[in-house]
Amino acid sequence: MSSGEARLVFVINTFEPDFGSVSFFIQRGDPSKRIGPFVGLRDQQRLSPLLPPEDRALIDLILALGLSDGRSIDNRFRYVSEISETISRHKHLFVRSQRHGSVRKASAKDRSTISSLLIRDSVAPLGVILRGVLEVAEDWNVRLLWKYAELDSPIPFLALPDGSEAIKTYGGRFIRRNSEAEIRLLQELSRVLEVSFDRVQRGNLEDVVLSRLTMLPTERWEVTYRSKTVLPKEAYFDSSGIAWFETDEEGSKQPLDFELVAEAYLKGRGRMEVNGKLIFFPVTSAQGLTDEIALKITTTSASNVPVAAITRVEKTFSESKRVALQKQLAKAGFQTELRNYQLDGVLWLSSIYDLGVGGVLADEMGLGKTVQTLAFITSKGIQRSLIVAPASVIPNWKAETEKFAPGMACIADGRLSEAAGGIFILSYQRALRLQKEIAEAHFDLIVLDEGQFVKNVQTKTAIALRRSTSRLRIVLTGTPIENSVDDLWAHLTFTNESLLGPYKKLTRKFKNFSKSAAAADLTTRAFNPLILRRTKLDVELDLPPMVERVVYCEMGRNQRRVYDTTLGAFRAMLTKGVAARVSSLALEALLRLRQCCSFPLLLPIALNQHSVRESSKLDAALEIIDGDVRNRRKTIVFSQFRKVSDAIQESLESRHIGSVRLDGETVDRETPVKRFQTDPSVQVFVIGFRSGGFGLNLTAAESVVLFDPWWNPAAESQAFARAHRIGQKKAVLVSKLICSDSIEEKMLKLIAEKSLLANSLSDLSEQMTTDELIKLIVK
Q1: Cys bridge to 81: 21, 31, 116, 226, which one at CB 3.0-4.6 A?
Q2: HSE on the CB side for 468, CA within 13 Å?
Q3: pLDDT at 645
Q4: What total of structural domains would you count in the chain?
Q5: Sheet hosting strand 384-389, strand order edge to edge
């Protein structure tokens, strides 16, 4: 290839802030005839020597000054006239106005946006700074600018100047930037915002506490929002719950409508603009956002919501109340003594029962939600209860009822009787088929166990179960929010139908309500009295340790060949694909690559033409199981894929290792659980993740193997808690199998680096943008 075949291309990304960032690329061929395809970073380094000499010199200068990561250019390049002027005049300068849009040739106006207005002139007069300007963007990021008396428009602050840096005024003369005045203002900004001076002088104002803008002296600082000057003000709530803010220096107060307040929290992260004022609302309890205020904001204009009852629910209890309840249960024949946190759970259930409001018992998996529910039924003498649970959990309900409340009738034959009393237990599938009978029958209590099965307000199951009549409805779940705040609202609207109106209003009014972190925070605050969640750390449960480890699996030659073929095919499609299909292609690529890591036979024949079945993970899992068998440890193996479970069982049979299995096609779910728990010859339990990752009590296991990562911490914790729960006497070892140098290892590193899932309950791929997914796959 000759030097004439490699060309340097600059692209202004005008959809990004700060005048649009600039990126550079190298392509083969003449950009004047066709833009792209651009080469990757590795090829870019190889082709750089083939560029025309002036382009090579420009790239060398950009890299030498530390202004590039290899593709994008730091916006400080505008202070280097040799760079900014050269780019502004470059033959191959283009503009992209949308993230996935096409590029167009840069106009004269586009070119002027990046040309330098800066020179060096040590004898120019010193400029006078009138004030600092903080420009608040729609996404609530802040940009710092300086308003010089000699300039018509503020200039953006990107770095402190040296003593000779000069700016050309619109009158044609030059002034020197006033570094001393800029430093004084930066020091003041650092103190008020409570961030380091080093950070401020680099222009880094990301994620600052914006409400502190109200403390900046107005004679030296100006705040702008949506291209106009605004006055920052702090709002507060008085004892009646009404939001106020001060309108002038005399302190006169103006009330704010709760509709506006809700909009501020759900659209503006606790901020909004009202009549030239930028209002900041309290966002923490310490600032004045109490649960009661959050409840009023969330249920505004909904007169049928029992606000008074909700605020009266008790969640903390005295030792005397616990002792009295323990005695009451013993007298009623309950066959175990409850721990203190379990007694508190029963007392909380009694509180919502007496007040006539439903609730969500959301204790972490393994803390005994079933036994607390049975104790509550016993303590209140409840005559007719309906339990709706996954089919795999029904045997556990029967066993625990017989164990702890042997005098209580337990009917789990899939029928309902109007005359009979006791506990009726139905699977979700059976309840859906019997929705008419459930609607016509009356119960004192209806319980949804593993409530995440009804995670959408509008599903047939949710609608059918809301038609049932009972004095109290409760939901039991270890994952109250599994994917989005909609999950929690599904629980709340089932337990309290009056909340259906506020939910519909909020989702109709606020776009992306379901995925909003503000919506999740406001919902959990508002309905905190109706949600009781304790973790193992909260209750200081004396359980043996659970140790998690990552087992890296090196793919063999054949599996690696299939993986590379699959990766190459999707990289090509994503690079050249139609924009409308990019998102679905990225998700499919993610699935296929994960399948290849687990077991290549999961792939369609087009991607695995030689039917390769080699699996480094299968080898690793069998090696772990062999070690467990030698050390007389029982093992649970979780997988999402049926073919993987088949392969594991075939291998176990060939090794004469006793095993049982539970997946979506298992009809008798009680027998495999009982055999694993009690039969010494059964050493391995192979479980489908979706079918058995919840509700089961498998304390006979000391080893858990997660064959294919789920990337959802809530779901994974549910699975691990099958073994690590009350009743476990030995340490539990959890082994996550990860293929080295694969999409799995990339995702694992991404989680570790960004703490992306630290406090999240949703799948990693659901949190990532299409761009992030593509970057994960293509690079």
Answers
A1: 116
A2: 32
A3: 92
A4: 5
A5: 410-411, 422-427, 384-389, 442-449, 469-476, 359-361, 531-532
Question: Is residue 297 in a domain?
Answer: no
pLDDT of residue 511: 75
**Beta-sheet strands, E only, within 305-389:** 359-361, 384-389
Q: Would you state the pLDDT for residue 667?
A: 77
Per-residue pLDDT at 289: 74
Structure tokens at 577: 């694909």
Q: Is residue 296 part of a domain?
A: no
Tell me which residue of 90, 83, 5 sits closest to 51, measured CA to CA.
5
Low-confidence stretches of the chain (pLDDT beneath 50) = 1-3, 17-19, 116-117, 579-580, 754-765
The pair phi, psi for residue 78, each rounded to 5°, is -70, -20
Instruction: Report how far residue 314's alpha carbon sits from residue 331's, in angstroms, rounded to the nearest whole number.
Output: 24
Q: What is the pLDDT of residue 86?
A: 82
Helix (H, G, I), strand (E, B) or coil at 426: strand
Judge if 267 and 347 occupy the same domain.
Answer: no
**The two three-digit tokens of residue 334, written as one number:** 């309950």
> How many C-beta atoms surround the C-beta of residue 618 within 10 A?
20
115 in helix, strand or coil?
A: coil
Query: What pLDDT does residue 287 have?
Result: 63
Last residue of a domain, one of 503, 532, 561: 532
Distance CA 86, CA 165 (A): 19
The enclosing domain of 383 has a CATH number of: 3.40.50.10810
Please give the C-alpha separations between residue 684 and each of 337, 366, 637, 656, 676, in angstroms, as whole numbers. 32, 21, 7, 11, 8
229 Cα distance to chain centroid: 35
Q: Is the domain of 213 the same as that of 241?
A: no
How do residues 628-660 score in pLDDT, each as one tens digit?
998 889 999 999 889 999 999 999 999 999 999
Q: Of 532, 553, 571, which residue sits at a domain end?
A: 532
Same domain, 41 and 112: yes
32 phi/psi in degrees, rounded to 5: -65, -25
Q: Which H or E element spans position 18?
A: none
* CA 726 – CA 717 distance, rounded (Å): 15
User: For residue 470, what are the domain limits?
Assistant: 309-532
What is the rounded distance in angstroms from the CA atom of residue 221 to the CA atom of residue 199? 19
Paired residues of 442 in beta bridges: 469
**Tens digit of pLDDT for each residue in 134-190?**
988 877 788 888 999 988 778 878 678 766 777 777 666 778 888 899 999 999 999
Structure tokens at 7: 């060309």
CB 143 within 8 A of CB 210: no
Instruction: Supply φ then ψ for residue 671, to 5 degrees.
Output: -60, -50
Has residue 304 been placed in a domain? no
CATH of the domain at 561: 3.40.50.300
Helix axes 340-355, 369-380, angle to 10 degrees: 50
Residue 323: partners with Cβ closer than 8 Å, 6 or more residues away: none
CA 164 remoteness from chain centre: 48
Task: Give the model confidence (pLDDT) of 103-146 as tens digits.
Answer: 788 887 777 666 544 566 677 888 899 999 998 887 778 888 89
621 with 724, same domain: the answer is: yes
**Token digits for 721?**
């808690």
pLDDT confidence of residue 182: 92
Chain mean position to CA 226? 29
Look at residue 19 in the predicted model and tell me its pLDDT.
46
Shared domain for 666 and 582, answered yes or no, is yes
- Looking at the fold, whether 725 and 614 belong to one and the same domain comes out as yes
- Looking at the fold, whether 486 and 601 belong to one and the same domain comes out as no
Q: Helices 258-268 and 500-509: crossing angle, nearest 10°?
A: 60
Same domain membership, residue 157 and residue 192: yes
Query: Any residues with CB less than 8 A from the CB of 186 and at least 6 apart, and which?
Result: 160, 197, 200, 201
Per-residue pLDDT at 560: 92
Phi then psi dihedrals of residue 440, to 5 deg: -85, -25
The encoded tokens of residue 149 equal: 């008396």
Enumerate residues 6+ apart whose C-beta is below 8 A from 751.
Answer: 711, 757, 764
